[in-house]
Design brief:
The chain is of the alpha+beta class. A hairpin with a 2-residue loop joins β8 and β9. It is globular, with a radius of gyration of 21 Å.
Length: about 250
């Protein structure tokens, strides 16, 4: 049976690759379902050609996972892998060094990536939102507030940084292997959603940022493709970059 909601989402996603539509008007109309309503079979005949076309796109293999990557807290190999790619891909777009990257835990929409081929569709499921990566210059005081928020939420994945959590507070914060300095300015790769205060990041709302105009999902896809081109497999480790003090 075709999942029409999922198929509609994929159709819209496919269309958005070429054009960007902005809703300017919304209309509501109540429809009564009766025996004259089109049957599922007739709807299938209309949608199946589109579904087949989308399946061909979404089933394209872009990489291979050497082991299963799992989403969990406080630290996960999946979160580490995602942040590593975002940091490296963002660095290619910046003339200045980027100190670290962060992804909010709730933004990761799959429990993990299984061992084996990784498809375009799987990464779309992992990061289904249209969030873009932006670059922010933030002082240590603001970052201290951000890390404390991350601690209250059980830990968010990072790359280029390390921190420990105790009683919902972040301690022993280091960026590029140096202790966080309150008066220093750091460059962070982060989603536009968080940069605009999403997921309780009020300390970031209103602060300027540079929009890379590249979606997080596309950064992950590009990073995975580069790994595959080099003949390597997707691999990640747990290194204690995010930990909890009992």
């Amino acid at each position: 049976m075709i999942n029409y909601k999922h198929l509609l989402f994929l159709l819209l996603l496919s269309a958005s690759c070429n054009k960007h539509f902005v809703a300017t008007q919304y209309n509501y109309e109540q429809q009564k379902v009766s025996n004259t309503t089109a049957t599922a079979e007739s709807v299938n005949r209309i949608l199946i050609p589109f579904k087949d076309s989308l399946d061909k796109i979404m089933n394209v293999e872009i990489g291979y996972a050497a082991e299963s990557l799992t989403k969990k807290q406080p630290e996960s190999d999946l979160g580490n892998f995602m942040c590593e790619i975002i940091l490296s891909e963002s660095q290619l777009l910046s003339k200045e060094p980027i100190d670290f990257a962060v992804v909010n835990y709730g933004g990761i929409r799959l429990p993990g990536l299984p061992i084996g081929p990784v498809t375009l569709g799987k990464i779309t499921e992992l990061m289904p939102f249209e969030n873009r990566i932006v670059l922010m210059k933030l002082n240590g005081t603001t970052l201290d507030s951000l890390f404390n928020l991350m601690a209250t939420k059980g830990g968010w994945p990072v790359s280029g940084a390390r921190y420990r959590m105790t009683q919902e507070k972040a301690v022993d914060i280091t960026i590029q292997n140096q202790a966080l300095q309150q008066d220093r300015i750091y460059t962070v790769a982060i989603s536009d959603y968080l940069a605009q205060g999403g997921d309780n990041c009020e300390m970031l709302n209103g602060k300027p940022f540079i929009d890379t105009k590249i979606r997080m999902r596309d950064m992950l896809i590009d990073g995975i493709k580069k790994i595959n081109i080099k003949g390597e497999r997707i691999h990640s480790i747990l290194d204690g970059r995010v930990s909890k003090i009992n």
